[in-house]
Amino acid sequence: MAMTAIKRAKVSRGIQYSILIIAVVALALIADWGKIGNAFFNLEIAKNQFPEIITTAFVNTLLFTALGFVVGMSGGILLALMKLSSVAPYRWIATIYIEIFRGLPALLVFVVFGYGIPAAFSISINTYITAMLALGTVSAAYISETIRAGLQAVPAGQMEAARSLGMSHTRAMVTIIIPQAIRIVLPPLTNEIILLTKDSSLIYVLGLTVSQYDLTKFGRVGLTAANAGLTPLVLAGACYLIITVPLSYLSRRFEAKTARTKK
Amino acid sequence: MNGSDTHDSKNQSSPTRAPGAISVSGVTKAFGDNEVLKGITLSVEPGEVVCLIGPSGSGKSTLLRCINLLEKPDAGEISVGDTLVTDPECDIDDFRRRVGLVFQHFNLFPHLTVLQNCSIAQRRVLKRSEEEADKVSMRNLEQVGLADKAAAKPSSLSGGQQQRVAIARALSMDPELMLFDEPTSALDPETVGDVLSVMRELADAGMTMLVVTHEMGFAREVADKVVFMDGGIVVEQGPAAQVINDPQNPRTRLFLSRVLNPTEVDLGEVDLGEKPAE
Asked: Which of A231, B68, B115, B224 is deepest in the core (most CB within 10 A)?
Protein backbone atom coordinates (compact mmCIF):
# COMPACT_ATOMS: atom_id res chain seq x y z
CA MET A 1 0.00 0.00 0.00
CA ALA A 2 2.42 2.59 1.20
CA MET A 3 4.43 4.27 -1.54
CA THR A 4 8.10 4.79 -1.03
CA ALA A 5 9.21 8.37 -0.51
CA ILE A 6 10.96 8.42 -3.88
CA LYS A 7 7.89 7.14 -5.71
CA ARG A 8 5.65 9.67 -3.98
CA ALA A 9 7.97 12.51 -4.98
CA LYS A 10 7.89 11.27 -8.59
CA VAL A 11 4.10 11.15 -8.72
CA SER A 12 3.82 14.59 -7.15
CA ARG A 13 6.24 16.08 -9.67
CA GLY A 14 4.38 14.36 -12.52
CA ILE A 15 1.08 15.95 -11.43
CA GLN A 16 2.66 19.40 -11.20
CA TYR A 17 4.09 19.15 -14.71
CA SER A 18 0.74 17.92 -16.11
CA ILE A 19 -1.13 20.92 -14.65
CA LEU A 20 1.41 23.29 -16.16
CA ILE A 21 1.18 21.69 -19.63
CA ILE A 22 -2.64 21.66 -19.62
CA ALA A 23 -2.73 25.34 -18.61
CA VAL A 24 -0.27 26.37 -21.33
CA VAL A 25 -2.09 24.40 -24.04
CA ALA A 26 -5.49 25.77 -22.96
CA LEU A 27 -4.19 29.35 -23.03
CA ALA A 28 -2.67 28.86 -26.47
CA LEU A 29 -5.95 27.50 -27.89
CA ILE A 30 -8.42 29.89 -26.25
CA ALA A 31 -6.61 33.20 -26.55
CA ASP A 32 -6.72 35.40 -29.65
CA TRP A 33 -3.03 36.04 -29.86
CA GLY A 34 -3.18 38.59 -32.63
CA LYS A 35 -5.52 40.80 -30.65
CA ILE A 36 -3.63 40.41 -27.42
CA GLY A 37 -0.34 41.13 -29.11
CA ASN A 38 -1.75 44.26 -30.65
CA ALA A 39 -3.12 45.46 -27.34
CA PHE A 40 0.12 44.97 -25.42
CA PHE A 41 2.67 45.79 -28.03
CA ASN A 42 2.03 47.69 -31.22
CA LEU A 43 5.23 48.61 -33.04
CA GLU A 44 3.79 51.78 -34.61
CA ILE A 45 2.62 53.10 -31.25
CA ALA A 46 5.91 52.07 -29.64
CA LYS A 47 7.89 54.07 -32.19
CA ASN A 48 5.92 57.18 -31.31
CA GLN A 49 7.08 56.95 -27.70
CA PHE A 50 10.67 57.61 -28.68
CA PRO A 51 12.78 59.52 -28.04
CA GLU A 52 10.82 61.33 -25.28
CA ILE A 53 10.35 58.20 -23.19
CA ILE A 54 14.12 58.11 -22.74
CA THR A 55 15.15 61.77 -22.92
CA THR A 56 12.35 63.00 -20.64
CA ALA A 57 10.62 60.21 -18.72
CA PHE A 58 13.50 57.82 -18.05
CA VAL A 59 15.83 60.68 -17.12
CA ASN A 60 13.22 62.22 -14.81
CA THR A 61 12.56 58.94 -13.02
CA LEU A 62 16.29 58.51 -12.44
CA LEU A 63 16.57 62.12 -11.30
CA PHE A 64 13.65 61.93 -8.85
CA THR A 65 15.01 58.67 -7.44
CA ALA A 66 18.53 60.01 -7.05
CA LEU A 67 17.35 63.23 -5.38
CA GLY A 68 15.11 61.26 -3.03
CA PHE A 69 17.94 58.86 -2.20
CA VAL A 70 20.36 61.65 -1.28
CA VAL A 71 17.88 63.06 1.22
CA GLY A 72 16.75 59.61 2.38
CA MET A 73 20.30 58.40 2.95
CA SER A 74 21.38 61.51 4.87
CA GLY A 75 18.21 61.47 6.94
CA GLY A 76 18.49 57.72 7.43
CA ILE A 77 22.03 57.90 8.79
CA LEU A 78 21.05 60.73 11.12
CA LEU A 79 17.95 58.85 12.37
CA ALA A 80 19.90 55.61 12.87
CA LEU A 81 22.50 57.40 14.98
CA MET A 82 19.71 59.12 16.94
CA LYS A 83 17.99 55.80 17.52
CA LEU A 84 21.23 54.32 18.92
CA SER A 85 22.04 57.45 20.92
CA SER A 86 22.47 57.34 24.68
CA VAL A 87 20.39 60.54 24.90
CA ALA A 88 16.81 59.38 25.42
CA PRO A 89 14.94 62.26 23.69
CA TYR A 90 16.93 61.62 20.49
CA ARG A 91 15.80 57.99 20.60
CA TRP A 92 12.17 59.06 21.11
CA ILE A 93 12.25 61.52 18.22
CA ALA A 94 13.79 58.94 15.90
CA THR A 95 11.29 56.27 16.94
CA ILE A 96 8.30 58.55 16.45
CA TYR A 97 9.56 59.71 13.04
CA ILE A 98 10.18 56.15 11.87
CA GLU A 99 6.83 54.86 13.08
CA ILE A 100 4.94 57.71 11.43
CA PHE A 101 6.57 57.61 8.02
CA ARG A 102 6.69 53.83 7.79
CA GLY A 103 3.04 53.70 8.76
CA LEU A 104 1.69 56.27 6.29
CA PRO A 105 1.01 55.61 2.60
CA ALA A 106 3.67 57.38 0.53
CA LEU A 107 0.91 58.90 -1.58
CA LEU A 108 -0.47 60.72 1.44
CA VAL A 109 2.95 62.17 2.23
CA PHE A 110 3.23 63.34 -1.39
CA VAL A 111 -0.10 65.14 -1.16
CA VAL A 112 0.97 66.84 2.06
CA PHE A 113 4.22 68.00 0.51
CA GLY A 114 2.62 68.91 -2.82
CA TYR A 115 -0.47 70.78 -1.59
CA GLY A 116 -0.65 70.89 2.19
CA ILE A 117 2.64 72.59 2.94
CA PRO A 118 2.51 75.13 0.06
CA ALA A 119 -1.04 76.06 1.10
CA ALA A 120 -0.26 76.24 4.80
CA PHE A 121 2.78 78.47 4.37
CA SER A 122 1.58 80.25 1.21
CA ILE A 123 4.71 79.31 -0.69
CA SER A 124 5.31 77.59 -3.99
CA ILE A 125 8.07 75.01 -4.17
CA ASN A 126 9.81 73.70 -7.26
CA THR A 127 8.46 70.28 -8.25
CA TYR A 128 11.90 68.66 -8.16
CA ILE A 129 12.51 69.94 -4.65
CA THR A 130 9.06 68.79 -3.50
CA ALA A 131 9.70 65.35 -4.97
CA MET A 132 13.13 65.20 -3.37
CA LEU A 133 11.77 66.11 0.06
CA ALA A 134 8.73 63.84 -0.13
CA LEU A 135 10.63 60.80 -1.39
CA GLY A 136 13.48 61.51 1.01
CA THR A 137 11.18 61.89 4.01
CA VAL A 138 9.56 58.53 3.40
CA SER A 139 12.69 56.59 2.47
CA ALA A 140 14.69 58.02 5.40
CA ALA A 141 12.40 56.08 7.74
CA TYR A 142 13.10 52.79 5.98
CA ILE A 143 16.79 53.45 5.36
CA SER A 144 17.40 54.36 9.01
CA GLU A 145 16.06 51.00 10.14
CA THR A 146 18.27 49.22 7.59
CA ILE A 147 21.34 51.13 8.80
CA ARG A 148 20.53 50.59 12.47
CA ALA A 149 20.20 46.85 11.88
CA GLY A 150 23.53 46.87 10.03
CA LEU A 151 25.33 48.67 12.84
CA GLN A 152 23.89 46.27 15.38
CA ALA A 153 24.79 43.25 13.26
CA VAL A 154 28.51 43.92 13.77
CA PRO A 155 29.49 41.57 16.63
CA ALA A 156 29.96 43.19 20.05
CA GLY A 157 33.48 41.73 20.17
CA GLN A 158 34.56 44.12 17.42
CA MET A 159 33.78 47.16 19.56
CA GLU A 160 35.44 45.50 22.57
CA ALA A 161 38.57 44.70 20.58
CA ALA A 162 38.77 48.26 19.26
CA ARG A 163 38.22 49.76 22.72
CA SER A 164 40.78 47.39 24.27
CA LEU A 165 43.35 48.84 21.86
CA GLY A 166 42.66 52.28 23.32
CA MET A 167 40.31 53.64 20.66
CA SER A 168 37.57 55.98 21.84
CA HIS A 169 33.96 55.01 21.13
CA THR A 170 33.75 57.44 18.21
CA ARG A 171 37.09 56.35 16.77
CA ALA A 172 36.04 52.69 17.02
CA MET A 173 32.74 53.45 15.27
CA VAL A 174 34.47 55.24 12.40
CA THR A 175 37.39 52.89 11.81
CA ILE A 176 35.98 49.51 12.81
CA ILE A 177 32.19 49.35 13.12
CA ILE A 178 30.88 51.54 10.27
CA PRO A 179 33.09 50.02 7.52
CA GLN A 180 31.78 46.58 8.48
CA ALA A 181 28.20 47.81 8.79
CA ILE A 182 28.33 49.25 5.26
CA ARG A 183 29.14 45.81 3.87
CA ILE A 184 26.24 44.31 5.77
CA VAL A 185 23.89 47.10 4.72
CA LEU A 186 24.67 47.23 0.98
CA PRO A 187 22.26 44.46 -0.14
CA PRO A 188 19.20 45.77 1.78
CA LEU A 189 20.13 49.34 0.83
CA THR A 190 20.11 48.37 -2.84
CA ASN A 191 16.62 47.02 -2.30
CA GLU A 192 15.65 50.37 -0.80
CA ILE A 193 16.77 52.06 -4.02
CA ILE A 194 14.56 49.68 -6.00
CA LEU A 195 11.57 50.60 -3.81
CA LEU A 196 12.43 54.26 -4.18
CA THR A 197 12.55 53.94 -7.97
CA LYS A 198 9.04 52.53 -7.95
CA ASP A 199 7.77 55.05 -5.38
CA SER A 200 8.99 57.91 -7.57
CA SER A 201 5.96 57.14 -9.80
CA LEU A 202 3.80 58.75 -7.10
CA ILE A 203 4.96 62.25 -7.96
CA TYR A 204 2.18 62.38 -10.54
CA VAL A 205 -0.01 63.81 -7.76
CA LEU A 206 2.11 66.95 -7.79
CA GLY A 207 0.77 67.82 -11.23
CA LEU A 208 3.66 67.63 -13.63
CA THR A 209 4.41 69.75 -16.69
CA VAL A 210 5.29 67.86 -19.87
CA SER A 211 9.02 68.27 -19.30
CA GLN A 212 8.65 66.87 -15.77
CA TYR A 213 6.90 63.64 -16.78
CA ASP A 214 8.33 60.51 -15.20
CA LEU A 215 7.93 57.04 -16.72
CA THR A 216 4.53 56.23 -15.21
CA LYS A 217 2.98 59.60 -16.02
CA PHE A 218 4.47 59.47 -19.52
CA GLY A 219 3.01 56.00 -20.08
CA ARG A 220 -0.43 57.06 -18.85
CA VAL A 221 -0.48 60.11 -21.09
CA GLY A 222 0.53 57.85 -23.98
CA LEU A 223 -2.59 55.75 -23.34
CA THR A 224 -4.83 58.61 -24.41
CA ALA A 225 -3.59 58.52 -28.03
CA ALA A 226 -5.94 56.89 -30.54
CA ASN A 227 -5.74 53.08 -30.57
CA ALA A 228 -2.80 53.21 -28.22
CA GLY A 229 -3.68 49.96 -26.45
CA LEU A 230 -1.36 49.18 -23.56
CA THR A 231 1.86 49.68 -25.49
CA PRO A 232 2.96 52.93 -23.75
CA LEU A 233 2.58 51.33 -20.31
CA VAL A 234 4.41 48.19 -21.40
CA LEU A 235 7.30 50.34 -22.60
CA ALA A 236 7.34 52.35 -19.38
CA GLY A 237 7.33 49.09 -17.43
CA ALA A 238 10.27 47.83 -19.44
CA CYS A 239 12.16 51.02 -18.59
CA TYR A 240 11.58 50.42 -14.87
CA LEU A 241 12.92 46.90 -15.24
CA ILE A 242 16.02 48.26 -16.99
CA ILE A 243 16.69 50.16 -13.75
CA THR A 244 15.56 47.63 -11.16
CA VAL A 245 16.78 44.29 -12.52
CA PRO A 246 20.47 45.31 -12.57
CA LEU A 247 20.02 46.71 -9.06
CA SER A 248 18.65 43.46 -7.72
CA TYR A 249 21.47 41.62 -9.49
CA LEU A 250 23.89 43.98 -7.77
CA SER A 251 22.19 43.33 -4.45
CA ARG A 252 22.68 39.58 -4.86
CA ARG A 253 26.33 40.11 -5.77
CA PHE A 254 26.91 42.17 -2.60
CA GLU A 255 25.19 39.49 -0.58
CA ALA A 256 27.35 36.72 -2.04
CA LYS A 257 30.47 38.78 -1.40
CA THR A 258 29.54 39.42 2.23
CA ALA A 259 28.85 35.72 2.69
CA ARG A 260 32.31 34.91 1.35
CA THR A 261 34.27 37.23 3.63
CA LYS A 262 32.31 36.14 6.67
CA LYS A 263 33.51 32.99 8.33
CA MET B 1 59.54 22.63 36.17
CA ASN B 2 59.60 25.47 38.61
CA GLY B 3 57.73 28.65 37.89
CA SER B 4 60.52 30.88 39.20
CA ASP B 5 62.74 29.67 36.35
CA THR B 6 60.99 31.99 33.97
CA HIS B 7 62.15 35.00 35.96
CA ASP B 8 65.79 34.06 35.71
CA SER B 9 65.61 33.37 31.99
CA LYS B 10 64.60 36.90 31.07
CA ASN B 11 65.81 37.63 27.60
CA GLN B 12 68.21 40.58 27.68
CA SER B 13 67.57 41.53 24.04
CA SER B 14 63.83 41.96 24.59
CA PRO B 15 62.64 45.56 24.89
CA THR B 16 62.38 46.62 28.50
CA ARG B 17 58.82 47.43 29.44
CA ALA B 18 57.33 49.76 31.99
CA PRO B 19 56.21 48.05 35.18
CA GLY B 20 52.73 46.56 34.85
CA ALA B 21 51.71 45.39 38.28
CA ILE B 22 48.03 44.59 38.76
CA SER B 23 46.38 44.93 42.13
CA VAL B 24 42.78 43.88 42.67
CA SER B 25 41.11 44.28 46.04
CA GLY B 26 37.60 43.45 47.18
CA VAL B 27 36.11 43.54 43.68
CA THR B 28 32.46 42.52 43.34
CA LYS B 29 30.32 42.32 40.21
CA ALA B 30 26.74 41.18 39.71
CA PHE B 31 24.68 40.80 36.57
CA GLY B 32 21.14 41.32 37.83
CA ASP B 33 20.69 38.82 40.65
CA ASN B 34 23.66 36.77 39.52
CA GLU B 35 26.61 37.62 41.75
CA VAL B 36 29.59 36.69 39.60
CA LEU B 37 32.43 38.16 41.67
CA LYS B 38 32.07 38.12 45.46
CA GLY B 39 35.06 40.09 46.64
CA ILE B 40 38.17 39.21 44.70
CA THR B 41 41.61 40.20 45.93
CA LEU B 42 44.75 39.28 44.05
CA SER B 43 47.94 40.80 42.75
CA VAL B 44 50.29 40.33 39.83
CA GLU B 45 53.86 41.58 40.17
CA PRO B 46 55.72 43.13 37.23
CA GLY B 47 57.20 40.42 35.03
CA GLU B 48 55.08 37.74 36.69
CA VAL B 49 52.90 35.22 34.84
CA VAL B 50 49.69 34.38 36.69
CA CYS B 51 47.19 31.79 35.49
CA LEU B 52 43.56 31.98 36.56
CA ILE B 53 41.94 28.56 36.58
CA GLY B 54 38.55 27.29 37.65
CA PRO B 55 35.27 25.85 36.36
CA SER B 56 33.07 27.65 33.83
CA GLY B 57 30.99 30.35 35.48
CA SER B 58 33.48 30.86 38.29
CA GLY B 59 34.00 34.51 37.29
CA LYS B 60 37.51 34.26 35.80
CA SER B 61 36.65 35.96 32.53
CA THR B 62 34.52 38.57 34.25
CA LEU B 63 37.44 39.44 36.51
CA LEU B 64 39.72 39.81 33.50
CA ARG B 65 37.15 42.01 31.74
CA CYS B 66 36.82 44.13 34.89
CA ILE B 67 40.57 44.76 34.91
CA ASN B 68 40.27 46.21 31.41
CA LEU B 69 37.00 47.96 32.34
CA LEU B 70 35.05 46.12 29.64
CA GLU B 71 32.87 45.40 32.66
CA LYS B 72 32.51 47.95 35.42
CA PRO B 73 33.06 46.48 38.89
CA ASP B 74 30.28 47.21 41.40
CA ALA B 75 32.69 47.69 44.28
CA GLY B 76 36.36 47.32 45.12
CA GLU B 77 39.54 48.79 43.70
CA ILE B 78 41.66 47.81 40.73
CA SER B 79 44.95 49.43 39.89
CA VAL B 80 47.34 48.76 37.05
CA GLY B 81 50.82 50.20 37.42
CA ASP B 82 50.28 53.60 39.07
CA THR B 83 46.78 54.04 37.59
CA LEU B 84 43.76 53.56 39.79
CA VAL B 85 41.49 52.05 37.14
CA THR B 86 38.32 52.15 39.22
CA ASP B 87 38.67 55.91 39.78
CA PRO B 88 35.87 57.58 37.79
CA GLU B 89 38.40 60.25 36.70
CA CYS B 90 40.63 57.61 35.09
CA ASP B 91 41.21 58.16 31.35
CA ILE B 92 39.98 54.78 30.16
CA ASP B 93 41.30 55.03 26.61
CA ASP B 94 44.75 56.09 27.75
CA PHE B 95 44.84 53.26 30.28
CA ARG B 96 43.60 50.59 27.86
CA ARG B 97 46.28 51.28 25.27
CA ARG B 98 48.84 50.20 27.91
CA VAL B 99 47.09 46.85 28.49
CA GLY B 100 46.99 44.17 25.78
CA LEU B 101 43.89 41.99 25.74
CA VAL B 102 43.56 38.71 23.85
CA PHE B 103 40.04 37.35 23.45
CA GLN B 104 38.77 33.78 23.29
CA HIS B 105 37.25 34.45 19.86
CA PHE B 106 40.19 36.58 18.60
CA ASN B 107 37.93 39.47 17.47
CA LEU B 108 40.20 40.35 14.58
CA PHE B 109 38.85 43.07 12.28
CA PRO B 110 37.56 41.06 9.29
CA HIS B 111 37.56 43.98 6.85
CA LEU B 112 41.29 44.62 7.34
CA THR B 113 44.36 42.63 6.39
CA VAL B 114 46.52 41.00 9.04
CA LEU B 115 49.03 43.86 8.80
CA GLN B 116 46.29 46.51 9.00
CA ASN B 117 44.81 44.73 12.03
CA CYS B 118 48.13 45.27 13.81
CA SER B 119 48.74 48.79 12.50
CA ILE B 120 45.37 50.51 12.73
CA ALA B 121 45.39 51.30 16.44
CA GLN B 122 49.05 52.34 16.34
CA ARG B 123 48.19 54.84 13.65
CA ARG B 124 44.86 56.08 14.98
CA VAL B 125 45.64 56.00 18.70
CA LEU B 126 49.42 56.30 19.05
CA LYS B 127 49.56 58.52 15.91
CA ARG B 128 52.48 56.60 14.49
CA SER B 129 53.29 57.07 10.80
CA GLU B 130 52.17 54.31 8.44
CA GLU B 131 55.78 53.34 7.88
CA GLU B 132 56.61 53.11 11.57
CA ALA B 133 53.38 51.29 12.45
CA ASP B 134 53.91 48.71 9.73
CA LYS B 135 57.49 48.18 10.89
CA VAL B 136 56.34 47.50 14.46
CA SER B 137 53.54 45.24 13.17
CA MET B 138 55.92 43.23 11.00
CA ARG B 139 58.30 42.77 13.91
CA ASN B 140 55.46 41.39 16.04
CA LEU B 141 54.08 39.25 13.22
CA GLU B 142 57.56 37.76 12.84
CA GLN B 143 57.61 37.08 16.56
CA VAL B 144 54.37 35.05 16.29
CA GLY B 145 55.61 33.37 13.09
CA LEU B 146 53.09 34.90 10.68
CA ALA B 147 55.06 37.55 8.80
CA ASP B 148 54.22 35.74 5.55
CA LYS B 149 50.49 36.26 6.20
CA ALA B 150 50.70 40.05 6.50
CA ALA B 151 48.64 40.67 3.36
CA ALA B 152 46.03 37.98 4.10
CA LYS B 153 42.52 38.61 5.40
CA PRO B 154 41.78 37.06 8.82
CA SER B 155 39.04 34.83 7.39
CA SER B 156 41.64 32.93 5.35
CA LEU B 157 43.60 31.94 8.47
CA SER B 158 43.13 29.01 10.85
CA GLY B 159 41.91 29.70 14.38
CA GLY B 160 45.39 29.28 15.79
CA GLN B 161 46.86 31.68 13.23
CA GLN B 162 44.11 34.21 13.94
CA GLN B 163 44.85 34.05 17.65
CA ARG B 164 48.56 34.61 17.00
CA VAL B 165 47.66 37.66 14.90
CA ALA B 166 45.50 38.87 17.80
CA ILE B 167 48.53 38.54 20.09
CA ALA B 168 50.70 40.44 17.59
CA ARG B 169 48.00 43.12 17.34
CA ALA B 170 47.98 43.59 21.12
CA LEU B 171 51.81 43.59 21.28
CA SER B 172 52.01 46.25 18.59
CA MET B 173 50.67 48.79 21.08
CA ASP B 174 53.75 48.11 23.29
CA PRO B 175 51.61 47.20 26.31
CA GLU B 176 52.91 47.09 29.87
CA LEU B 177 51.10 43.84 30.46
CA MET B 178 48.94 41.33 28.64
CA LEU B 179 45.60 39.83 29.62
CA PHE B 180 44.52 36.56 27.97
CA ASP B 181 40.89 35.42 28.16
CA GLU B 182 40.87 31.67 27.45
CA PRO B 183 43.07 32.20 24.38
CA THR B 184 43.04 28.55 23.29
CA SER B 185 39.48 27.50 24.21
CA ALA B 186 38.02 28.17 20.75
CA LEU B 187 40.86 26.51 18.83
CA ASP B 188 41.22 23.22 17.03
CA PRO B 189 43.39 20.98 19.22
CA GLU B 190 46.24 20.84 16.71
CA THR B 191 46.65 24.63 16.65
CA VAL B 192 46.67 25.12 20.42
CA GLY B 193 50.39 24.33 20.70
CA ASP B 194 51.45 27.17 18.38
CA VAL B 195 49.54 29.73 20.41
CA LEU B 196 50.86 28.40 23.71
CA SER B 197 54.44 28.48 22.49
CA VAL B 198 54.05 32.11 21.41
CA MET B 199 52.72 32.88 24.89
CA ARG B 200 55.60 30.98 26.46
CA GLU B 201 58.14 33.03 24.50
CA LEU B 202 56.37 36.17 25.64
CA ALA B 203 56.59 35.02 29.26
CA ASP B 204 60.27 34.17 28.84
CA ALA B 205 60.85 37.70 27.49
CA GLY B 206 59.60 39.07 30.80
CA MET B 207 56.08 40.20 29.85
CA THR B 208 53.66 40.55 32.74
CA MET B 209 50.76 38.22 31.95
CA LEU B 210 47.43 37.33 33.50
CA VAL B 211 45.99 34.30 31.73
CA VAL B 212 42.56 32.72 32.12
CA THR B 213 43.10 29.18 30.89
CA HIS B 214 42.16 25.53 31.05
CA GLU B 215 45.61 24.47 29.84
CA MET B 216 47.03 22.96 33.02
CA GLY B 217 50.29 21.99 31.32
CA PHE B 218 50.88 25.60 30.35
CA ALA B 219 49.95 26.82 33.83
CA ARG B 220 52.29 24.34 35.49
CA GLU B 221 55.26 25.03 33.23
CA VAL B 222 55.00 28.76 32.54
CA ALA B 223 53.08 30.40 35.37
CA ASP B 224 54.78 31.80 38.44
CA LYS B 225 51.50 31.75 40.32
CA VAL B 226 48.21 29.92 39.85
CA VAL B 227 44.93 31.27 41.20
CA PHE B 228 41.98 28.89 41.50
CA MET B 229 38.57 30.58 41.42
CA ASP B 230 35.19 29.01 42.03
CA GLY B 231 31.78 30.55 42.68
CA GLY B 232 33.07 34.11 42.44
CA ILE B 233 35.82 33.83 45.06
CA VAL B 234 39.51 32.98 45.07
CA VAL B 235 39.60 29.53 46.63
CA GLU B 236 43.31 28.91 46.54
CA GLN B 237 46.43 30.55 45.15
CA GLY B 238 50.14 29.90 45.26
CA PRO B 239 53.15 28.85 43.23
CA ALA B 240 52.06 26.99 40.11
CA ALA B 241 53.67 23.67 40.95
CA GLN B 242 52.19 23.66 44.42
CA VAL B 243 48.59 24.49 43.46
CA ILE B 244 48.48 22.07 40.56
CA ASN B 245 50.50 19.19 41.99
CA ASP B 246 49.50 19.49 45.63
CA PRO B 247 46.24 21.44 45.99
CA GLN B 248 45.19 22.07 49.59
CA ASN B 249 41.49 22.89 49.15
CA PRO B 250 39.10 19.98 48.37
CA ARG B 251 37.35 22.05 45.65
CA THR B 252 40.68 22.70 43.94
CA ARG B 253 41.52 18.99 44.23
CA LEU B 254 38.21 17.92 42.70
CA PHE B 255 38.45 20.45 39.86
CA LEU B 256 42.01 19.46 39.02
CA SER B 257 41.29 15.76 39.16
CA ARG B 258 38.44 16.26 36.70
CA VAL B 259 40.50 18.41 34.36
CA LEU B 260 43.64 16.30 34.50
CA ASN B 261 41.88 12.90 34.38
CA PRO B 262 38.57 13.51 32.62
CA THR B 263 37.96 9.78 32.10
CA GLU B 264 38.40 8.85 35.74
CA VAL B 265 35.60 10.79 37.36
CA ASP B 266 34.85 9.51 40.82
CA LEU B 267 31.09 9.64 41.04
CA GLY B 268 31.27 9.31 44.79
CA GLU B 269 32.82 12.77 45.08
CA VAL B 270 30.93 15.91 45.95
CA ASP B 271 29.12 17.23 42.87
CA LEU B 272 30.23 20.75 42.01
CA GLY B 273 27.05 21.19 40.03
CA GLU B 274 26.78 22.33 36.42
CA LYS B 275 27.09 26.05 36.22
CA PRO B 276 25.84 28.15 33.34
CA ALA B 277 28.52 29.08 30.83
CA GLU B 278 30.07 32.50 31.27
From this structure: A231
